[in-house]
Specification:
Blueprint: H1 7-39
């Protein structure tokens, strides 16, 4: 049986996912900046 998720549950899950993906983007940007710093 498939579990039905409520819109609230979905929003919560999606919010967590978005936070994680934003954090990942920030880490990636920092990493790129560090790489650029090394190249100079």
């Amino acid at each position: 049986m498939k579990r039905v998720i409520t819109p609230d549950e979905f929003k919560k899950e999606f919010g967590e996912f978005k936070k994680d993906s934003d954090a990942f983007k920030n880490n990636l940007d920092e990493f790129k900046n560090n790489l650029d710093g090394l190249k100079k």
